[in-house]
Amino acid sequence: MRHVSLGTLAIVVALAATSPARAQSPRQPNWADVERETLEHFQALLRLDTRNPPGNERRAAEYLKAVFDREGIPAQILALDSSRANVVARLKGTGRKRPLLIMGHTDVVTVDTTKWTHPPFAATRDSGYVYGRGAVDDKDNVTAGLMTMLLLKRLNVPLDRDVIFLAESGEEGNTRVGIGFVTEQHLPEIEAEYCLAEGGGATRIGGQVKYSTIQTLEKRGRGIELIARGVAGHGSVPLASNAIVHLAGAVARVGAWRPEIRLNETTRAYFERLAAISPPDVAQHYRGVLSADSAVRRAADDWLYEHEPRHSSMLRTSASPNVIAGGYRSNVIPSEARATLDVRMLPDEDADRFAEEMRKVINDPAVEVRVSPSFGRPTGVESRLDSEAFKALEASVRRVYNVPAIPVMGTGATDMSFTRAKGIQCFGIGPAIDMEDGPRGFGAHSDQERILESELHRFVRFNWEAVTSLARGERPRAMN
Ligand SMILES: [Zn+2]
Questions:
Q1: In angstroms, rounded to a whole number, what is the distance separating the alpha carbons of residues 67 and 417?
Q2: How many angstroms is it from 414 CA to the middle of ligand 1?
Q3: 116 CA distance to ligand 1 middle (Å)
Q4: Would you call 37 helix, strand, or coil by DSSP?
Q5: What DSSP character marks residue 306?
Q6: pLDDT tens, 304-329?
Q7: Mean pLDDT, residues 417-434 taken together
Q8: Residues 285, 205: Cα–Cα separation, whole Å
């Protein structure tokens, strides 16, 4: 129960005079009906083939628009490329607070059909799961956002801020037609104080939800290319300047390098909170990275790098050599060889400073370190842990899952990088997923993808809780 102050009571009484039922006990959804309908929309969306490339997200946009039209929720299609449409819908509030935006992307990554037990676009239900490309990335978020909009409208929930829904195209590598286009050309339609999107979620271990992450910022990808140059010559006469040898040395040094550990508000809270709920033998490593003692930090980092590499990546700007090219025939020493590094920078990283560090690590004048001219995605603000939105999400996690919420920095990129760059504080959420499911090949981008039906429904509940607690009109007015 929410603490009710005297000031609040006055408001409740005032509201009661105009609409007694609503003000005193807000109508709750009939969850059995909601679950039936959730599954219907979810399966329908999974059955729309929106694999990207080519995308064809218009299919999903039109489906969603038709649902909104039937409900009388104003919605419009926004498209830079007609086949790659986005859809935006809005429920009006009193405007006392700035809007809340709920986002989900409608495109999915491609599939290798031969690897799927259940066809990727059939939305097959089997043993409590729904199978299909997009089941956890990201038609789960799209469906939960849609259901929340429908419920807000049908229950006529009074809102003190607009609630906006955006289903965007092109998240998987073509942001130009999706969030890039919407933020650049239709910002007023989606401008908000807060936004919710993919990127977090509850973690189940052994069938039990243990905690839920809320993504509050993400690393930024920026490519770096290593170019080694030497003298070309006949392969029968080895040369000290051989570009491949120089490149191989540089790649090996970068591969062995772990750049300095740098924590921010989110990662510090992440490791602290994770330590508090982890078994002692693992928790010691999470606490270790927070230690002021560099030897302890180093030992913890070594352990994470070997056992939990994603956590190691959260500690620093990371560089992974992923493409290497050089030479064209065995008897010619090439004059040039190149390697492409996937560099994921901490949000506040200075790219030039980092490249300079890398040059020192490589320590070879024959190897050029070239930073790609710009970040693929814009720079955004870190979403605050002391914001009303984070607190509402935390409380909703507690109510729906009864576990702690943990802020997390994403090591990959999401569309939130664009909305954050427009000053919107964004939070990544998601359904509960079995930690064991990823390694078994059922996760996002895997050769199969699935979600537990029960967790899809619980995610809709979570969305509803979070959105209503942030936007519902009869919340206590701040005292001032
Ligand atoms: Zn996604």
A1: 28
A2: 7
A3: 20
A4: helix
A5: H
A6: 999 999 999 999 999 999 999 999 99
A7: 96
A8: 19
Mean pLDDT of 331-339: 98
Give, for 91, the enclosing helix (H) or strand (E).
strand 86-91
- Kindly give, in sequence order, each residue whose CB lies less than 8 Å from that of residue 67, ignoring residues fewer than 6 positions away: 41, 146, 150
Name 233's bridge partners.
333
CA dihedral (151, 156, 158, 162) positive or negative: positive
How far is residue 17's CA from residue 283's CA, in Å, rounded to a whole number? 54
Distance 181 CA to ligand 1 centre (A): 17
**Model pLDDT, residue 424:** 96
Residue 185 CA to ligand 1 centre (angstroms): 22
Q: In which band, very low, low, confident or very high, does the pLDDT at 25 lie, cut at 50, 70 and 90? A: low
198 CA distance to ligand 1 middle (Å): 6
SS3 313: helix
Question: Residue 108 Cα, ligand 1 centroid: separation in angstroms?
Answer: 7
Residue type, 279: P
Residue type, 12: V
- Tell me the two tokens of residue 66: 């038709």
Tokens 């699935």 correspond to 450
pTM of the entire predicted model: 0.89
